[in-house]
Amino acid sequence: MREDTTFFETRGHGPRAVDIAVMAVLFLLAVLGLQDAYGGADYLLAGVMALAVGTIVALVGARWRWGVLRVTLATLVLHLLLGSTFAAPTHALFHVIPTLASLRELLVAPITAWKAMLTVSTPVGSAHGVLGVVWISTLLLSVAGMSIVLRTRRYALAWLFPLALLLVSVAFGTSAAVAPMLRGIGVAVISLAWLTWRFESARLASARSTIISDTVRPGSWRNPVLRRRVIGGGLVLVIACGATAGAQALLDPPPGTARFALRDTMTPPFDPDEYVSPLTEFRGYLKHQREAELFTVTGVEDGELVRLATLDRYDLQTFAVASSTERTGPSGAFLRTATGVDLHEASPAARTATVTIGEYRGVWMPTLGSRTDRIDALGEGGDLAENLYLNQVSQTAVDASVLGSGESYDLVYEPYRHPTAQEQDEMEFADIDLPPLPENLPAEYKELAEAAVGDTDDDYAKMQNLSATMQSTGYFSHGVDPEDTLSLPGHGASRLNAMLAEEISYDAEDVTAMPQGRIGDQEQYAALTVVLARSVGIPARVVMGFEVPAGSAGEATITGDDVTAWVEVAYEGQGWVRFDPTPEQDDTPTQPEKNKVEKPRPQVAQPPPPPAEPPSPPPGATSEDAPGEEEDPAQTSSWAVYAAAGSGPFLLLGALLAAIALAKARRRAHRRTRGSAAERIDGGWQELLDVRADLGRPADVLVTRRELAAEIEAELPGAGIAVLAERADRGVFGPEEMPQAAVDEYWAQVMDSRAALLAAVPWHRRLRGRFSLRSFRRRRALRRAAARDRQRLDARRESSRAQAEQRAARRGRGVPEPAQPRGIGRLLDRIGAAIPRGRTRIPRTTSTTSTTRSTQEDR
């Protein structure tokens, strides 16, 4: 810190201001890379203020010689004080004053903001805590970068921090770069010029030039050497920038490969499969909510269609809302979407509508038009701002918290435009891969579709013919009112199979029996038309929604009686075009009159619908709430299974700990009872060293027993370690073998010292040492060290013998008989002889040198 402070004090105000300005510009250029991801200017304000706060903290810390702890504490305090205004404005009081909710969001933002930034659909706006990404990253990197450039001479290290923020903008931005050429040239020019200036200033400050006056500062513009190099370098940069701008067309990568963004690899968090298909609730609106005011919508025209959900996956039971992990796939993906931001640039024809929820309940949000440009949550009636998901491909919006009464939101949308007659003649089906139909679909569907489409080559005419065929050959009936012709609900395989027959057939004897044939309402005709179209390769899907009733232009109240469904087909260049295959509502079949009989026949109960048509739960219910799914007792695990599964990890851990304790006990018994007296004495000493190693104090292999005993006695006086070390030396290296009684006495003293070592540490360290594996690793390390020492000794003996043979050969006397080595050779032979060739036994704490010394003294 002393060196850093001196550098800050000696560096002039001008160079210091240049350093701060250059770093600030580089940071701002990096922040601008998040423009497409955020949209609007809230992120830019958060980034500028984070940069200002970071610069102030770095300046104050450098001026008053703050350490890392103080700088970190100051950064955290300012983060909590100012973060509510710039990073969590949606939870702050009046978007400025901190609240408990905003402080809580600031505390969890370092963990949650990054995921929210990647899972919210762009532009992310300012909700969901996404501003924490630009605020936290700019604040932390600016504090670190500015502190380094102000306190040290490591300007190149400080320059890496703006580059790190640039990488953050690339990773958390979008695949579309923001002014890549201008920003890239700006970063390159500013960085190269500043790094060159700092390098030359440092070099000239440390050297004395004869052409520079002593009154001229090395970094001053009056310095001729520096001025000449700056002008020359500037000319080179101008030429390089011009050449780069001219070659931009050649340098740009192909579309779709220009940028990598982490958000393109994220899996959407909303799964529509967890919810019941809204199309199964079609008859429910007519039966239970026919007169209920579901919601009101303003700014609409008569007959305008309100979309509730788009369904493009059929499994022979229901049409469901499909989704994928690819946000640009045929079915799209449900992504968290911010309210109050422009999702698309609105065209001059765009309209604005306000939807206010009444008795409608569900996660599927009513929307309008062919594209949603903007959604604004109004009032404080719900959690729409935090739970909004939008599938841009299917234009299906979702409120994961379930829409409630009183919630209101504004929609900016593009109204649907039907293609003109000239456009219809040139339209072609789009080449997209919708979810495939089931493989066991009856062949009658394709045969009927081919006959209805006809021989025309006009793609629009094909779908028009199919839709007209359904209208002209079918009959309409909801089957809800007493005067309606009976018509089953649902759109499963059995229901649609019954509609393949064009003629309506009745039971001649029982007019109350269900008629067979092509009869139904919008639910059945839309589903049947889509299945027929898809069977011949036409990309079609079902849309469920509501129709604005006649005479309700401007402000309409939508009831359950306004429910409807239609078909959309994808065309190149036109998008999704709507078709209505449902017959007119007054086109109903004529039922035969009831035969007059003297005695009325008892009414026979009709068989229930096929299993594929389960009763429908209330709107918005999840699939887990569907009735009729009773729990199978055979599949319910007993308490014993759960207990075994829960206790399994604990039993495994207990078995492992017991195995460790058993291995240590077996090792101790083996040392005490096996081998010669010297081996058992050495085993007692090794037992003490293992206990000490398990307690976290391993012994040095290059320390003798007496040296180690002195070290332990200094820490734990009265443990008797010194006496044990002396007796171990005598027992291992002594000329006579110790009697059995002496060995038993030695081991008794070892156990007493072992107990003293364990009693000297806290209970948790004793418990941890009991199951530690350090002592096993210590023995392996000792064996490896002994093997290396033996190899070195053998190598030196062979080298000495080879040198003696070479000297004898040069003298012409041939290869002599092995002579007795002298000096160091004799010493090496004795050391080698002292090491057994078989099972090596070397005390852990006795080094090769100490072993040699003890052996020489003994001999």
From TrEMBL:
Residues 605-620 have a biased composition (Pro residues). The keyword Metal-binding does not apply. Residues 576-637, 787-859 are annotated as: Disordered. Residues 513-583 form the Transglutaminase-like domain. Signal peptide: none annotated. The keyword Protease applies. SUPFAM superfamilies: Cysteine proteinases. SMART domains: TGc. It comes from the Bacteria. GO terms for molecular function: peptidase activity. The chain crosses the membrane at residues 20-38, 44-64, 76-97, 127-150, 157-175, 181-199, 230-251, 639-663. Residues 787-800 have a biased composition (Basic and acidic residues). Keywords: Hydrolase, Membrane, Protease, Transmembrane, Transmembrane helix. Residues 843-859 have a biased composition (Low complexity). One of its GO terms (biological process) is proteolysis. This is Cysteine protease. The lineage of its organism: Bacteria, Bacillati, Actinomycetota, Actinomycetes, Micrococcales.
